[in-house]
Amino acid sequence: MKNIQSKKHPPEPNSPNCRLSHPPPTDSALDRSPRNQSTAPRLSRYRSPVPDPLFAHPRLAAVYDAFDGPRHDLPAYLGIADELDARRVVDIGCGTGCLAILLADGGRTVTGVEPAAASLDIARAKDPDRRITWLEGDATTVPAVAADLALMTGNAAQCILSDDEWMLSLRRIHAALRPGGHLVFETRRPERRAWEDWAADPGPVTVDVAGIGPVRQLRTVTDVRLPFVSFRVEYRFESDGAVLVSDSTIRFRDRDEIDASLAANDFRVLDVREAPDRPGREFVFIATRD
């Protein structure tokens, strides 16, 4: 990863994924298949912190990896774990377990924390030998395991919307680490204005998912009220015509805000790097517990 020496930043790609839904409440994951148009059930009407249907609905969780594609972002985090000699790692917002599995393959003791039960089910299925401890929860419920390293990848930090929840998350992560342990997470640079890229190229994209068949995905930016950006992801399953919708909101924090919040929770920033697969688009913070 390239070190960022100054606070001048910018660029950003693909999906604006988020794991938690926050106010304002939305009717998400409505089944809009033709046969259910007149009686579409409200599968979820919720407030924070409820996992987005994108991760929590079993049918959507089952196709998540297929749409996410090759995880070119993960080798850099494995490298950081090696660099920090981290043997006990907590993966916060672990999703379907892609990074946690790779960390365990390297002989590390891994705890995966994820708020969406459907995603955890998929993660557990990838771990038949039960090498990993899988926990349903979020950054505010991370257990105190004396970890060497806590990770939040996939821009999971942007799913924490309120100041109170962000500060509580940092306090709980601090408690989960051993003295001198490290927190590493990524977040998009707000000045890059990634939402404009998403709005300019919403799709649709169709993927033929093994065992499921063709699924079409359409992403739409629905609201921009900085620092918050909301978007909708719609999936159509060609096998039965079912349409499922997931609404999400994420928060764009600038570097000064993140620096201040880390310092307020007894973290010391050691480095801020670029994500090598997304140059100029992300901050990657490396902080140590003081």
Automatic annotation (TrEMBL):
Residues 89-181 form the Methyltransferase domain. SUPFAM superfamilies: S-adenosyl-L-methionine-dependent methyltransferases. Pfam families: Methyltransf_25. GO terms for molecular function: methyltransferase activity. One of its GO terms (biological process) is methylation. The keyword Methyltransferase applies. Residues 1-50 are annotated as: Disordered. Keywords: Methyltransferase, S-adenosyl-L-methionine, Transferase. InterPro entries: Methyltransf_25, SAM-dependent_MTases_sf. This is Methyltransferase domain-containing protein. It comes from Nocardia arthritidis.
